């Protein structure tokens, strides 16, 4: 087995206008089927080659918490929400949560700008997904 390879590049999501839906850039192992985010060239479990894939479908919001006092030097102003979304591919991704969402909701990734020139991805509740 080889040492863990670094993330392929720093682009975590597909470019789209702020507020629009996006896809997260992930990878899938051709041998064991493991999905990784962010994208890698090889599987950290078995060391074989991984191929690019995108996480674009909805995901289930498994964890949701509020950050009321940000750490020193944080650029995102408090309060804000952070959650863990589990995609159908079996991978969980942590990210900002924007808007009215609760634990258990279906969420989708979208392009978010929580501060000036700070483009990232976040999750928002999918249309009609309030459970």
Overview features:
131 residues, mainly beta, 3-stranded antiparallel β-sheet, globular
Task: Write up this protein.
The chain is mostly beta strands. 0% of the residues lie in helices and 38% in strands. The protein has no helices and eight strands. The protein has strands spanning 24-29, 35-36, 50-55, 59-67, 80-87, 92-97, 106-112, 120-125. A five-stranded mixed beta barrel has the order 4-5-6-8-7. Strand 7 and strand 8 form a beta hairpin. The model has no long low-confidence stretch (mean pLDDT 90).
Number of helices: 0
**How do the helices and strands follow one another from N- to C-terminus?**
EEEEEEEE
* Strand order in space, largest sheet: 4-5-6-8-7
> CA-to-CA gap between the ends?
43 Å
Mean of residue pLDDT? 90
Query: Shape from CA axes?
Result: globular
Low-confidence stretches: none
Strand content: 35-45%
Overall structural class, as computed from helix and strand content, comes to: mainly beta
Rg, nearest Å: 15 Å
Helix content: under 10%
Largest sheet descriptor: 5 strands, mixed, barrel
**Number of separate strands:** 8
Question: How would you summarize what this structure contains?
Answer:
It is built from no helices and 8 strands. The protein has 131 residues and is mainly beta.
Indicate the topology.
Blueprint: E1 24-29, E2 35-36, E3 50-55, E4 59-67, E5 80-87, E6 92-97, E7 106-112, E8 120-125
Parallel strand pairs: 6-8
Antiparallel strand pairs: 1-2, 1-3, 4-5, 4-7, 5-6, 7-8
């Amino acid at each position: 087995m080889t040492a863990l390879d670094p993330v392929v590049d720093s682009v975590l999501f597909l470019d789209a206008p702020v507020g629009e839906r996006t896809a997260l850039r992930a990878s899938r192992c051709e041998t064991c089927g493991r999905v990784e985010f962010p994208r890698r060239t090889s599987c950290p479990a078995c060391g074989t080659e991984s191929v690019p894939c995108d996480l674009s479908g909805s995901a289930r919001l498994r964890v949701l918490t509020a950050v009321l006092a940000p750490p020193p030097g944080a650029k995102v102003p408090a309060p804000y929400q952070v959650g863990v979304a589990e995609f159908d591919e079996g991978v969980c991704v942590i990210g900002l949560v924007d808007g009215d969402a609760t634990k258990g909701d279906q969420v989708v990734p979208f392009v978010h700008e929580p501060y000036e020139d700070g483009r990232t991805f976040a999750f928002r509740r999918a249309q009609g997904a309030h459970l």
